[in-house]
Amino acid sequence: MLKIRLARGGAKKRPFYSIVVADSHSPRDGRFIEKVGTYDPLLPKDHAERLRVKEERVQSWLGKGAQPTDRVARLLSAQGITKWENSNNPTKGQPGKKAQERVAERAQRDADRAAAIEEAKNAPAPVEEPAAEEPVVEAAAVEEAVAEAPAVEEPAAEAPAAEEAVAEAPAAEEPVAEAPAAEEPAAEPPAEEA
Known about the structure:
It contains five helices and five strands, in the order E-E-E-E-H-E-H-H-H-H.
C-alpha cells in the first residue's frame, strides 16, 4: 500500500520534513518512491515557504490509490488539494477489556462490602452473658476472720533451728526474721574468773 507521508530531515531540534510517496512497510526516513514536497514547521504559518507541494504529482499519486497520512491530509487540505475530515474513533478513550474487568471486579467487591456493612447494622446485637460474679469480700469481714483465727506459736525447740537457717543464709539475700527476743535467754552477767 502506498502512503503519502512526512520523512524527517534537518538537525537536532531543527526539524525539516520532506513529503514523500513511499511503501507503507518502508522506514519513516528510509526508502521512498518520489519526493512531492517539503514542510518546514519552524517558519511562521503565513510564510509562503512553509509548505511547498507539487500539486500535479500529488493528484497523480492520489489517483493511483496512495493514501495520505492524517498530518499530510491536513496540510494538503490547507492548500485545497484534498478534503480532510477529522477521524472519528468513538472507542478511543474507553479502557480495554482487562481494565473493564478490573473495574467490574472492584465494583462487585465494593457492593459486597457495602451489603455486609448494611447487614451488620441491621442484625440484632449479640447478647452477652454476664460473667460469673465473684463474691465481694468486704474489708471488715477479713478483719473479723483474722481476729477469730487462733494464734499460732512456734515451740521453743524450733527456735535455734531458725537461728541456724539465718546464719546459713547468704548475705546477698534478705535477712530472715529472727525469733522474738522474749524467747532468747536473758543476758547473763559475765562469769567471775576464779
